[in-house]
Task: structure prediction
Amino acid sequence: MEKFGKSQPVRRIEDQRFLIGQGQYIDDVIPEKTLFAAFFRSPVAHAQIAALNLDAAREADGVRLVMTLDDLADAGIDTVLNATTVRNRDGSHAAAPDRHILAKDRVRFVGEPVAVVIADTLTQARDAVELIWMETDDLPAKLDVDTGGEVLHPEAPDNRAFDWELGDETATEAAFQVAAHTVSLNVQDNRIIIASIEPRGCQAIWSDGRLHFAYGGQGVWAMRAQLAQKLRLEPELIRVTTPDVGGGFGMKVMPYPEYFCVAVAAMKLSQPVHWMSDRSEAMLSDHHARDLTSLAELAFDENHKITAYRVHSKVNLGAYNSHFGQAIQTDLFSKVLMGVYDVQTTYLRAEGFYTTTTQVDAYRGAGRPEAIYVLERAIDRAARELGVDPWELRRKNFIRPESFPYKTSTGEIYDVGDFDMVLTRADEQTQGFAARKAADAERGLIRGQGLCYYIESILGAPSENAKIEFSEDGTVALCVGTQSNGQGHETAYAQFLSDQTGVPVDRISIVQGDSDRLAHGGGTGGSRSVTVQSTATLATIDVMIAAFTPYLADKMGVEEADVTFDHETFRAPGSNLTPTLTEAADMARADGRTDLLLHESRANLDARSYPNGAHVAEVVIDPCTGETRVDRYTVVDDFGNLINPMLAEGQVHGGVVQGIGQALSEHVVHDAQGQLLTASLMDYALPRAAEIPMIKFTSASVPSTSNPMGMKGCGEAGTVGALAAVANAVQDALWDHGVRQADMPFTPHRVWELLTHVSVAAE
Result:
């Protein structure tokens, strides 16, 4: 049997219902007699809570329940949210201050939940929230990533959460001391808001001693474990489901305070409770992303080979440790620290700081876009300072194909790669830049070209489950442990199962997001879904074929060893029976062999895959206004074998657009008091379709050796490569005009100021 799909661009099965308004999201599945939750959130960034008066809210029309942290504690639940922490350079533990589900005595960012109101209607709940009166003793806001300022947590008296390192600092310094050339660059990676098209939401139903919790997330089993821990319930007493989800991007992986409040309220009131965030509430309370500054330094020998690399990052964590927050710019950043370059002497230091802002956590790439952005900006700067071609500097330092498998300086094992081949394809597709630049110059415009060569480390749980069920109507259900947030999983999984078994795609249904239907699952995140889930599906198919073989051998009157499954049917020499899988299932059902109608297996991937590729952006700048637009965008990716090239291209397009958005317009702004000034889509500039060029995508595949299908994940790759490609293009355009430091976002005003200040300085 073939071990990978036929790479057919099958159109998305799920789009039929989405495009005619038949998607079922959290707000579409509200049960009868549901109560509604609304949250009272801190209106100030930093303050002691002097008094909190809830009397008027409790007496308001329709209000059933008002809860603070004390009420949650009285209900016997664990009120402290979980968060990853790291170890400091000196071996000590990083700061781990408690973050409670609702504020305890003190608020530390605008939007921090303080109390929750449950009422008969959403309007009544929101009206009651307006009646809550909180008196505060305001404290200074802290917005900078550095020690000092008002202390946010006693556990971090200097506001530094961690001081982490990886690599050999001494050896790296020695390499810099003897280097023929050194290059350094300060790189800012601006804070952004994820802004998924569907905000976060959830609902809970407590019935017959069992909790049904539904939410728009990226996996049900981790959520069930968190609910069991916090609510002190046995996991089997909790069912978690997820309907359709309108975008996740990593932001919806982790549990949030609202989820536990809604669950407790449903248990206390014995009625369904529903909560859905509005847009400004989401922009205040959903985890933000990026927000770090890095000093990147490269050392070269006389032949322009890189001999050492070091990075020192200062990271804004927000007010508390979020779920993965401390790991993102430390462990996850380090996975691709040296990118695709053959360098073994590296050193990474990262310091994390608490500020009076919303927490920062995972967002499309989580650490890998940040690492590649820093590295590829530094490589581009080095090419300029050394006076060499940026394409050739990268070629000179690539890991060669014969060096794979290659162990990086941070311990990753890259299985395969041919970076020069991929870059050559990109070069062939982007010819003519000089002529385009000259033509723009005649019109008074500035054109720049930027290159980024990225690599990504696929993350997430290495194990996954799959279950295949045969129904009486001849359909087949594939139960999966991942969760689609709009990527096209239903199509990819059905296509793969059909390719491997011969069951027609239109007779396959994908069951996801239900902890009662499948015992375990790893959820979606880190571009793991199709690779790991298809491996589990393949393992389940093997179990299924092995189970049917003795049954069919008896039917055929042959030995088990003679039965084979190939070309979508079972066969055996000497028998005229050639049943398909669905026919075999019908035979088993008629014979009462219900044990052959359900098959389940778990698969584990021992190694990661490493998608990589070249992104080339061309920007055009109007120097009179500073307006910057991406005019051309070319991507050549190595994703290994593709199950569905159309879906892969769609993922690349989406990722690139998110990268362009951060590079050109998206930017979180607070005032000096910590108030979020970009708390609506009137103020926060998401990219628009008219601002995005056609994106040319080409696959140049080197099949991975780390999974049976030869696949490499593609979900985050577009964003990983886009940031530096666009930023390098802007810097290229501005370099000849005297601008030496250009940082995202490249808004018209910022670009105009850069050009204007250079002109004034020249005068």
Observations:
- The CA atoms of residues 487 and 650 lie 8 Å apart.
- The chain has three domains: 15-22+460-604, 31-139+197-247+252-285, 288-459+608-762.
